[in-house]
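Entry type: protein chain
Record version: 2
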Amino acid sequence: MMSITFTRKKTFGLSLVELLVAITISTILLLGVSSVYLATRKSNAVQNEFSSLQENGRFAINLMSKEIRQAGYQGCTNLSRMTPVNNVSTGGNNGPVDTNFDFTSATALVGHTGCTGGTGAGCNPATPIGTLPVITGTEAITIRRTSSCASELTGNMGVRNANIQLTDNSCDFQKDEAMFITDCASGDIFRATSVSSSSGKITIAHGSNNNHTSFLSKLYGPDARVMKWERHTYYIAPCSSGVSGCRSLWVDVDQGNSDVATELVEYIDDMQIDYHVDTTLTGSGDPSVDAFMTAAQVQAGNLWPNVLAVRIHLLATTKDNIANQNNGKNETPYTFMGVKKKSTDRRYRREFTTTINLRNRTL
């Protein structure tokens, strides 16, 4: 008979020391992985913030460049060679002329500096809309121009107070809008008291109920064109989101029938503007910059018609406070307008600048 023998083998587990060593090594590895993850996450957050800052700054600069370049545009000659007549009234029949609609070489571009009190009324000169919530210490700029869309007259006006008839309304003219009519020799600004369509023609009335007078300065013929008049004021104001410390670049647009404020770019902290001036500019000769001035200096010398270019300085900031503490302090250094400064909110800041030539001043 066979006998079967079973042999028990001894099995050994981990000792307490080995277990502690394994836990220690695992903890070190886990801490290392966690550190790499957190560092990568922070690096990505910083890169995203810098990308947004760069995008905001460039977009704001490009947008303002495109608009400011068109200051004084009216499809014809330099405004120094033509002074349009302003017929828009402040209200009521044959009311006083509303100077906010003046469209001359002195009003086509105007800067506003020394802004205090949180409203455009505290700027020098005051912004066209005094209630604009301009951040104290920042600057604003206003341009006046016409739209690029124009419609031609169907024929001669019989009398100077006759309705204006156009070939079409492709420019979408609306009642109560401010309009500009010109034949490049003369020009008039008026508010449309009605816009109607009949027999394939567009009729625009310019009655005295919203104008200083219903009479234009001359009889315009089929060589004249009608365009919308526009005023754009750019300024820095609190963000619409209400986030503490957030500032945005805003624009207030007036086409005669209403003012519409639009938030353009968030996290633009400041705007300062330099003006390139030809102090000896006359109606003839080639314009040439011979002085660099602040808005206050241009205003004091009544030199707005002599401004040939502007240099915009925008200060963009990151959305979040991502900067590391500096020696235990929440100070983040940056440079703006050639001056070294420090912020205390741990947000990074960067200056964006560009020089904009005023096309309609150098023609």
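Comment: The first strand starts at residue 85 and ends at 86.
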